[in-house]
Write a structure and sequence with these properties.
Layout lengths: L1 H12 L17 H29 L9 H21 L2 H31 L2
Helix pairs in contact: 2-4, 3-4
Length: about 120
């Protein structure tokens, strides 16, 4: 996976310049960067927690009125692009937060799709 990210990065930005301050992938990052990443992880965690009431409404209470599937699909595409960006810049916070948020968005999307499909079968 790391080689794929490096290849994509070199394709878009040119060959890796060894004069960069950024450490190679096999070396640990400076502590300050981990501190910054921890802020990103906290923000990502709070963003995921914000979706929990929506997941409950769909899966527990079986309520789906007012949920736009095209909007959720657009958000899903945006999150996948943010995930790719996070991989390219090697941001643990962006990778973890986007993977988890994609899972939550998919849960809502699949739940709403199933409920609406079941309603179409019941109604003549």
């Amino acid at each position: 996976m790391i080689q794929l990210v490096q290849a994509l990065n070199e394709r878009w930005t040119g060959p890796r310049d060894d004069r960069r301050i950024e450490p190679p992938l096999d070396q640990p990052r400076p502590m300050a960067e981990w501190w910054v990443e921890s802020i990103g992880l906290l923000a990502g965690f709070l963003g995921i927690v914000a979706w929990i009431p929506q997941v409950r409404e769909v899966w527990v209470h079986r309520q789906h009125e007012g949920i736009s599937l095209p909007t959720f699909a657009t958000v899903l595409v945006a999150l996948v692009l943010w995930l790719v960006y996070g991989l390219l810049v090697r941001s643990i916070a962006m990778i973890v937060a986007n993977v988890m948020t994609i899972a939550v968005i998919l849960a809502v999307y699949v739940g709403v799709h199933r409920l609406r499909k079941a309603e179409r079968v019941i109604k003549p």
